[in-house]
């Protein structure tokens, strides 16, 4: 049940609806239904909050490790159900041939004891890259290490592009950059090859002339090798052919004469023995075939002659083909012919390289102009977005206890373009009056960076639909007063997206629309973790416990009620 003071607050439509974890670390089985708005998760150190984050990270495509499987189990499984009806991601499922009804998304990851893992989206098996791509569109997990991204230029450029709310120029620029980059690579490779070929020009022309003079013909080698075999064994072949052919010419044992006589005999008895006619027809077919064989034997006998001059010519031709193949390290005349065409192209290229390079250079320049034009449009959008971010950052940071903060996002031209655009960006920051701004990663404290990151996420959540954001102890190193202000920012974010926050501070826990507690339990089978949505009364006790420790006092309970804005 919602605290009375929070009833009526606009809550985002739930994105992450449920989470199921089984046999993961300390968790036997955990099932949790999650509502929209701002949910907080608390629990004592070691109870399993970080374990939940690790399980969630599996759904984001992180590397699987068999060590996470609960002792004695064969595999662990993490599954989450999302409502993605507000996201325009239908094409993502169509491209990857995944069933999708337009609203419900179920993501599952399994890890077996042998270290292998499988991922599924709506019960369709997917690769990790596909899982990562889909997960990045539906959930944003912010952990302490992500604060390091504050000094990452690409991260800041990504925020500028997100706030600009104009994805088309970025997409068009990226495509133009890839086209220019590919053309530039081809131009450089062609130029280097041309310079090398120019040095080898005479040798290439010599090789080409040698192959052209050889007058190569496809299939010639096989025919010559067959002819050489016949010439080399001409006498042996002729004797064999003569022996067989003479059998058809003899008077006494001529099979053809015998067949003729047999056919005539069978036809005489055909009127009184009908099957004789059929046998005569079959013998007639055999006679025709034998006469054909006899004729072919005679022709072959006439054709086969020992010809030492022809044998010498064939030998020489084959030796030439074999020598060329060994020289060029190829197999057969097909590869020699392909080599000849390749050499001809290289020689032609050398002769016309000036014109070819000029045309390629013009293409590179044209693509460069297109890329720069699109890059300038992208830069203009980023500069406009930078002004918006600067103003909203200052406003948000004022509410987070930084009244004298100054920020600036300075864009300047990169030495050379890359896929992100033409811009370098510098994020400058100062928390105090009359203190010159410096790069945020160099000057901001851990607590200041945590507030900066929260403010940035808040800005993005209002200008771009972020489905679900998970904050993992973003309050580390933050005071109680400041924690309450950070919680108010997260509460405000929850009107546009679902927010989950793992926290150890009662000031943040008290401002959540929903409060879950993670606990661990010692059993005869070991330690297990559990999670529970707290009732109003349980929530008072949990926050009182966070304020005073295990020894609850009336003062702590009253303080908890005050934080929850309950009537005492």
What does this structure look like?
It is a single chain. With 568 residues, the protein is of the alpha/beta class. It has 18 helices and 15 strands. The strands form 3 sheets. A 6-stranded antiparallel β-sheet has the order 2-1-4-5-6-7, covered by helices on one side. It has a 6-stranded mixed β-sheet with strand order 8-12-13-3-14-15. The chain has a 3-stranded antiparallel β-sheet with strand order 9-10-11. The longest helix has 68 residues, at 332-399. The radius of gyration is 42 Å and the shape is elongated. The two termini are 18 Å apart. 30% of the residues are buried. The model is unreliable at 1-8 (pLDDT under 50).
Estimated structural class: alpha/beta
**Percent in strands:** 15-25%
What is the tally of beta strands?
Answer: 15
Note the main sheet: 6 strands, antiparallel
